[in-house]
Structure formats: structure tokens, C-alpha cells
Amino acid sequence: MGGATLGDPTPSNALPVRGGYHIMKWLNLHRIPVPKRMASHILIDEAHDIPPTMLSILDASPAAVISLGDRFQYFGENFAPPRRANHIRARQFRQSVRTDRQVGNLLNDVLIHHPQAPTTEFVGNPQTKLNELRYERLDQDTLEDFVGRKGTRIILTGYIWTVATTIQRLAAADIPFFYTGHAGDLQLLIADAERLFKDSSEFITHPMLINHRSWDNLRRQAGSAILALENLFARGGFTSTHFNQSMTKAVATASDHRERAVGVGLVEHAKNREYDHVLITSDVRYGHYGDVVNRGTMISTLYTGLTRARRTISYQRDMIEKMMAGLSAPTSKLKATPTKK
């Protein structure tokens, strides 16, 4: 490594080219396109998640490359996904295949406040019917009603803290579930959150918490999103060990019981996917509406969550109205956190 970094770029000390992004970067730097013999046409779905280096390789390819993306499912820098080269013809598709007209109209009222506001309306599919179900509060009856629906089901949250408390509720009720993220990372986060709650910040290693020196500091940043977890810790009986035990009840991906289990995860985890029944927790509206990054994240989160459902979409009765009020008065702050997740 030292020889390749400081010495002459000769074959004897050249850096190795490894898999994945390393290869893409190497191909891009050497301006090596996709060979014509490999394909005459390339069709790419979910192109909003393609790295810029890969797009450069594809744009230089002699093959016909068609990429389809959705910029409102992109959560990266400036909410502007990597673009194709200027000589590539661009087209906008307004009509959704999955989302119906009613939800489409609702989304139009929200998307106009996005940092990358659309130039055309989002048009729902007139041939589909999506049942909107609004709950008063996410109590146990509401949770069990949702879990009892036939088909694929998922509970999507705006913040990781709500994921953790939802998993705890499902496990306590012996409801089969699976987590859409990385279980080990979530368990480390809750363990470090417990240490922070108990004033043991010197042992914290999770990236989300490593810069917090007190629970009060985290609460000021996380606001309402972390109150449910704080209440569990404050009762005195709940620890990260209990949470780890709850995680052992998660249904494995390859399990025969996966079809009867309900998914739990961040809205971001569900982008590019679809489910028969989707329940969105009210924390998707928490955030500083006056901050352009937070506003964009909230809107993309709501948009992505609402457009994942095929049959029913459930959310708190006044959630959209409260979010619209915040967007219309962008200097307000609704007990929120300036950083997402």
C-alpha cells in the first residue's frame, strides 16, 4: 500500500482492484465502457440509487441504456439523484402504476414543498383502488387489526427509535415479525442508548450516539421520536438485554413463517419495494420544517411510505393535516430532531 501510494505507478506496486464500487471507480477512471458484445440494450430500474460512477460508465456505453428512477425516493445530498449526461434524452413519467388517484392528489399537496419540487403533477392510477385507513392512535387494538390482514404487511417509521419500540411491542404480544435493517446494528444502538441513559457515555461506540455526552443532549436533538424509548428505560425494568431477547423472536428471512410475519423498519428500508398493507407511524412528520434538508427528508419519507402499498395504507388520522400545517409555516418546529434517523 505504501509503495503504491508514494512510489511510481509500476506493475510491481500497483494497488489491487477489488470488487464492487472499487471496480466501478477503476472502470470509470480508465474510461472503460460496457463492451458492446455484452448487450445491445440495457434497462435499469430504480436508477435514483445508482452511483454516479456507474452512470458515467453506462453513458459511455455503445449500448442503448434506459434508466428509470424516482427522485422523491432519493434521500442523498440535496435530494437530487445523480443525473445522466447532458446528451442523454430525458423524459418525465407522471402516472403511477400502483398508487391510486386519491393518494396521488394527497401527495401533490405535499410534494410542492419539496426542495426538488415537481414540474408536473403526480397522477394516480385510475384503475387501482387503495383503501386509506386512518387510526386514532397506534394502540394494541390498532396494531393487532393491522397484523391480522391477509397478505404482506409492514410497519414503516420515520425514526429508528420508533422501530425499536415497535419491535418491543410486537415481541411482547408474541406477534411474528421481521426487521428490514441490520439486527446487530440496532441492538448495539439500543445498548448504547441504555448506557447514555445511565450516564455511561464513555463506553459508547455507535456512530449515532458517539458525539452525545448526555441523555438530555440526545433528547434535545431527537425530541418526541425518542420519548417512547425513554419511558421504557425510566420504568426501571427494561434494559437492552430485554430488547435483545425480543430480537431473538424475529423471523428469519428464509423461514417458512415469513409470510405470516409483519415487517418493521424505516421507510428508507422499504424504498423500491411494495407490500399489500402498509402502516406508517406518525413520527414521519417530526422535524424542523424551517430546515430545507429536514423538510425534504420528511416529504420524501412520507411519499415513499405512501407509495409502497398495493391494497391498504394506514396512518394516524391527523398526521397529514399536521404535516401540511408545518409545511405551510416553515419557521415552526414540531418537537423534532434536526437530523434524520
Largest sheet: 6 strands, parallel
Strand content: 5-15%
Helix content: 25-40%
| Count of helical regions | 13
Q: What is the second-level CATH architecture of the largest domain?
A: 3-Layer(aba) Sandwich
Q: CATH topology of the largest domain, anyone?
A: Rossmann fold
Mean pLDDT: 85
How would you spell out the order of helices and strands?
HHEHEEHEEHEHEHHHHEHEHEH
Task: Report on the architecture of this protein.
The protein has helices spanning 2-6, 21-29, 52-59, 101-111, 140-147, 160-172, 183-197, 215-222, 227-234, 240-247, 267-270, 292-306, 319-328; strands at residues 41-44, 64-67, 95-100, 123-125, 131-135, 153-157, 177-179, 262-266, 275-280, 309-316. The chain is α/β, with parallel strands linked by helices. It folds into 2 domains: 2-91, no CATH class; 96-328, Rossmann fold. Helix 12 (292-306) links the parallel strand 9 (275-280) and strand 10. The longest helix is centred in the middle third of the chain and has 15 residues, at 183-197. It starts with a helix and ends in a 13-residue tail after the last helix.
Short description:
This protein has 341 residues and is α/β, with parallel strands linked by helices. It has 13 helices and ten strands.
Protein topology:
Elements: H1 2-6, H2 21-29, E1 41-44, H3 52-59, E2 64-67, E3 95-100, H4 101-111, E4 123-125, E5 131-135, H5 140-147, E6 153-157, H6 160-172, E7 177-179, H7 183-197, H8 215-222, H9 227-234, H10 240-247, E8 262-266, H11 267-270, E9 275-280, H12 292-306, E10 309-316, H13 319-328
Parallel strand pairs: 1-2, 3-4, 5-10, 6-8, 6-9, 7-8, 9-10
Helix pairs in contact: 2-3, 4-12, 7-10
